[in-house]
């Protein structure tokens, strides 16, 4: 039995058959990268990375600033007899966007253990109480 290559090469050529040509391989000289090109690419990538990190830092500072603003409002309006707050009461009269920002700020404060959040059931009001780091 002949192998597949020999069988293929002995097959009759059809008039309508298409010949495939393979691209030439690049020369060895073209495979070298000029150092100035590498340096330029590295610098532009570095600037892009710094820009992304800078925007992330800015976003984190903005989120933290909003959370601290909410914390100051909570501390200012807190009463001695009832240290708990209601998310519904905090968002009363707010737009949806403002309510979402308040909720997100509460999650940031929860992550930092400044407040504790409790919800009795899905879609019920969320109660906010001072956490371990609330008074520090």
UniProtKB/TrEMBL annotation:
Signal sequence residues: none
Alphabetized Pfam families for the sequence: Rad21_Rec8
Residues covered by region (Disordered): 1-29
Organism domain of life: Eukaryota
Domain Rad21/Rec8-like protein C-terminal eukaryotic: 85-133
Record InterPro entries: Rad21/Rec8-like, Rad21/Rec8_C_eu, ScpA-like_C, WH_DNA-bd_sf
Protein name, per record: Rad21/Rec8-like protein C-terminal eukaryotic domain-containing protein
Species name: Ameca splendens
């Amino acid at each position: 039995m002949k192998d597949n290559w020999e069988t293929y090469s002995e097959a009759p050529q059809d008039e309508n058959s298409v010949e495939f040509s393979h691209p030439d391989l690049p020369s060895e000289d073209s495979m070298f990268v000029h150092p100035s090109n590498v340096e330029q690419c590295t610098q532009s990538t570095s600037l892009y990375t710094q820009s992304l990190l800078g925007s992330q830092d800015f976003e984190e500072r903005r989120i933290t600033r909003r959370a601290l603003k909410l914390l100051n409002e909570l501390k200012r309006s807190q009463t001695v007899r009832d240290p708990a707050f209601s998310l519904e009461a905090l968002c009363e009269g707010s737009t949806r966007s403002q309510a979402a920002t308040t909720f997100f700020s509460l999650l940031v404060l929860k992550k930092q253990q400044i407040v504790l959040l409790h919800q009795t059931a899905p879609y019920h009001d969320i109660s906010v109480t001072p956490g371990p780091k609330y008074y520090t």
